[in-house]
Structure formats: C-alpha cells, structure tokens
C-alpha cells in the first residue's frame, strides 16, 4: 500500500495535479508545534502510550530515545542535578540564553527533562520504573547495579519492564569495564583503519556514526521486545554495545576477510569492488559518480562521448574495471576536471547511474530538494525563541512521526513529571530540592 501511495504521489507531482508529498501529508493537521506538553501526540503515533525512562547521556542512548519519541513515545530524560547530560557542554556553539550546546539539540527533541540524583533518589526512580515500559541506560556495566538500579533489581519492581543497556563493549569479555566512546569503538572495531585516503593516516567519519548506529540497533531491539511482550507479558534485558555495532558495520569488508582472507585498506572515496564509484575533482569542487552495473557504465560513457570505453576488454565488465582501476580512473579524472560540478549535473540529468555533488553543509541545507521536502523543522524553545532540527527521515502513509517539542532545558519538567505521574505535592518537591535529591 505504501509503495502504491508513493507511486501515486510521484504521478501527481509529475503531472502538476498535486504537490503535497507524503512527508507533508503525514504532518497535515499538526498544530501548536513546540508546545511544552505532549497534547499533540495522538493515536496516529505508533508508540502512543509507551513511556520510556531515559537514563542515557551523550549520543547513542539519546539518539535511540529520540527516534522512539518521534514515533510518539513519552520519554522522560533523567539528568544529574546542576550538571545534566554532558553533551549540554559540548560546544561552542552554544545557545544564547539557555547556554546549552547546539550539539545537545541534535538527539534530544520530544523529551521531558527531570533532574534526580541517582545515588540518593532511588525511591523516585523505582516509582518511575514501576510505571514505565522501557528503561534505557548507557553506564559502564555494574555501575547502576551498585546503586540498586540494575535489571535484576528493577524487574522485581516491574516485571514487564524492558531494560536496554548500551555500553562500549558489552557486559562480558576482557573489555567489559572500559568506558566507550564512538571514536574509540571505531578505532578498535577497524572502521578508522579503512577510512581515509589510501596513503594517509586513519580518519574518523565526520559524525558519530558508531554511536548513532548503536542507537538505531537499540531502537529496533526495543520495538521487537515491546512486540514480544504483547505475547509473553514479560519484559527482558537488551544489551547493545558500540564495538559489536562497529564490527557489524564492516559489512562487505568484514565478509571479504572472514571468507576470503582479503584485508581491506583505506581507499578514500573509492570502492574496493565497484569501479567507477568515487568522487572526482571538477573545476569548482567534487562530484561523486557510481556505476553499479555494466549498463550504468555504458550510460556514463555515452554521456561523456567516450562510447568506445565499454567495448574495451579492459573495461567491459565490472571485474575488468576493478582490475584496471588506475587506468580508467585516470581517464575519468582528466575528463571531469574540465568542467564544473553544476554543468556535469546538467549533463547527467536523467541518467541511470547515481551522481551528485559533494556539498558543503550550507549547500546541503540550501539544496532545493531538502527545502522541498521540509526536512528541517523549527521548534519553539522555552528560553531561546526557536531552534532548528533535522526532522525524522522516515515518512509513513498513515502514522505520524514528527518533531514536536524542542530539546528541554535542564530539569525543565521535574516538578511536572513528579507531580503528575507520582503525585508529589509542592511541599514534598520543595523538601527534595532542599535535600539536593532533585532540581
């Protein structure tokens, strides 16, 4: 049904009958964006009614819970009083009024922030765990157990609780007690070894891809556990770690070594098994071209007016092109350097092969396609007027998946959550604040 709807939408756009995309359709009727409440979560959100207690910080955990929050889950972000998530300090740049880093904004929309000292506020966390569906944490294994907040301890409070632990290396093995950060996992997991120019040093990917991929794995695992719970009526513990995630991302590189003993090296933007499949310098920048089939290579050569190349035995098949990579790439480099990326894109318009310019970040967000699909959202912020976020990349034909509220300020919802969900009165809240248990 979704594919049929997509074809209909494309047909409408092509014939000028309708220019409303599924992305706009899914958001149609959304009002009051950025209100400091969850009133605009409704039955169209797949996770409406699911409550998540989020004890995670930095990227992997918050990214996971943000994806779930976009789908309608109620996410209660538990932070350390007066300090909060470390990512709030990861700047510059910082927001002018709240002083939160722009970095923090990226994975924390659609959440409520409460401040509880996890060492002294165990009673509060037990009460919240008792009424939650999911708990997400990313402490070093054993840390929360020492505070009485481990899985075996909380399952006694709530047998249906799904407890997701996100760590650097998992709970077993010689590295289990090590702290884990994206760049370290990418180092140990080999991703940095295969990233960078052929004769250059190891490089990290420009964003925390191992962190985000771990968050995505965790999000999928949580959804699976929620579905299984509908049959078993029991929760369970989920473990996701950065190193295992990084190894899974090795994909064909890992498979080539495990099954053929072929060790990969750094290749810049090139591909070990497909030629051409890389970026080429043009007069004003770089252009990335990929031909995944012989037919696509023939199309490229036809447009470049070198129709003889696909007939050359050295370049006839992809296997041939891989074996004669250096010669073919030199030919293409010389040709593509003679004009601008913009002119090449005009020439390649309608091509069967994928092609695109290497955009700077300003060029990304000024791109006509990004603007046309409305990917960037503006959300009202309680202190800084409004903030911009990149909205969800997934669009449903029936369900809602949206950016609704700005990332919260530190402890913005402590009184609200403890009052509404646990029934704490003003005097009780004041005493907890005086005792430095909450903020």
General description of the model:
38% of the residues lie in helices and 13% in strands. It has 19 helices and eleven strands. It is of the alpha/beta class. The protein has helices at 2-14, 22-27, 60-70, 102-105, 122-130, 143-146, 151-157, 182-188, 209-232, 242-249, 251-260, 294-303, 318-323, 325-336, 341-347, 361-366, 368-372, 414-422, 426-434, and strands at 51-54, 74-79, 111-115, 134-137, 162-167, 236-241, 277-281, 286-290, 355-357, 376-381, 385-390. Strand 10 and strand 11 (385-390) form a beta hairpin. The longest helix is centred in the middle third of the chain and has 24 residues, at 209-232. The protein is elongated and about 85 Å long.
Q: How many individual β-strands?
A: 11
Strand residue percentage? 5-15%
The largest sheet, given as strand count, sense and whether it forms a barrel, is: 6 strands, parallel
Strand order of the largest sheet: 3-2-1-4-5-6
Pick out the low-confidence regions: 1-21, 25-38
Share of residues in helices: 25-40%
Average pLDDT over all residues: 92
Task: Kindly report how far apart the N and C termini lie.
Answer: 48 Å
Shape: elongated
Assembly state: single chain
Which structural class do the helices and strands define? alpha/beta
Q: How would you summarize the topology of this molecule?
A:
Blueprint: H1 2-14, H2 22-27, E1 51-54, H3 60-70, E2 74-79, H4 102-105, E3 111-115, H5 122-130, E4 134-137, H6 143-146, H7 151-157, E5 162-167, H8 182-188, H9 209-232, E6 236-241, H10 242-249, H11 251-260, E7 277-281, E8 286-290, H12 294-303, H13 318-323, H14 325-336, H15 341-347, E9 355-357, H16 361-366, H17 368-372, E10 376-381, E11 385-390, H18 414-422, H19 426-434
Parallel strand pairs: 1-2, 1-4, 2-3, 4-5, 5-6
Antiparallel strand pairs: 7-8, 8-9, 10-11
Helix pairs in contact: 3-9, 9-10
